Amino acid sequence: MSAMKIMDSILDLIFPKKCHVCGALNDEPFCMKCFTKIQLLKPQAFSHSVGTYQGTLKKAIHKFKFNKKIELAQPLGYLLVKYVNRHINIAGIEMVVPVPLHARRLCERGYNQSELLCHELTKYLNVPTVGGLLYRKRETQPQFELSRVDRFRNVRGAFEVKGRKLLEGKSVLLVDDIYTTGYTTSECTRVLKQNGARFVHILTLSRAVDDRV
Ligand SMILES: [Zn+2]
Known about the structure:
alpha/beta; Rossmann fold; four-stranded parallel sheet; two-stranded antiparallel sheet; 9 helices; about 15% strand; globular; binds zinc ion
């Protein structure tokens, strides 16, 4: 046994692994009981969400995003992979692009949750994640703090593409964690297309049941 593995086993004894959602002892960050409680959504034309933003999925995303539980990227990413395999024709997709965070937010949080999800997709689907191509040039307020009208204004013109050549004629899978009114993803789509993307599929982990998330 390597030193690393021994260390892991000792840590497991002191801090047994638990499900991040319900706290039950479990080897994976998600237990099976919580996993099966996720309400899955039916596929839509070009804008896909895996499940509704409530219960298990909401708790897991919240911890993943705000409590630095980055190990949840793996099971949450796997949900995306399963969804893609079942409902999206991956053969046509040439790159995975995360909805970007503004540099300041990225610095505060330390990671872009959507980009971590993209890396999981890349691992399983053999399509590269291209981070940094689409970026947030203007800082925006969190969408959930705003009224519907302000949400549109908030994201309009907030994104920019760096490296247009890379995008020219490409079919893109745009990934985000939560879909609320759809203004963020549609603004990203507009900018990607304006900069040469041939096609943009939208894939979000969850869809808000109402827009007050
Ligand atoms: Zn659980």
